[in-house]
Hints:
Blueprint: H1 14-49, E1 57-62, E2 73-82, E3 87-100, E4 106-110, E5 121-123, E6 128-130, E7 137-139, E8 157-158, E9 160-163, E10 167-171
Antiparallel strand pairs: 1-10, 2-3, 3-4, 4-8, 5-6, 6-7, 9-10
Amino acid sequence: MAVSQPESSNPKSPERRNFFFQALAGMFGSLLVAFPFLSGLGVLLDPLWRKSNEGEMIRVGSLDALPPDGTPVKFPVLSDKRDAWNKFSKAPIGAVYIRLLPDKVCEAFNVICPHAGCYVDFLPERRSYLCPCHRSTFSIDGKINDPKSPSPRGLDPLLVEVRNKKELWVKFQNFQTGRSDRVPMA
Length: 186
Ligand code: FES
């Protein structure tokens, strides 16, 4: 005589299948909720672990742009700029003056005046730099020209390299203003 088994003890019963599908749906639903939450958390925390582009070697121009007489040329410095939540490709992050020294060696200065952060201008007729804000003057080699200049130090030199015979690369860095020693910006 055949003995019928209770329905719940059958491994393929509809109740077990329902439980399995409900558990699966629950897990899937949790993942759907967690994914945007974790993505949002990543965006929120991104500035905390992001590194600044300052201090990196950046290509700024060509050796061909430098006059042989040593007159400095201003180059914008472009890099992937980031503010707290956005990233901009090849945006200006500063500028440098580069000039040719004898033997194709180059010299570079940050254009920012160490007094209070204005951009200095190079005056070809005087062969020197002038800050338009409070009139600090700097000689062509970046030193303070006039003892009355309010700038506490000379222009900030930057490492410059010629790569692949013509490319000008600069280790770009900003420094704190208003102090006599050179302290890189964080
Ligand atoms: S910012 Fe240049 S002299 Fe004041």
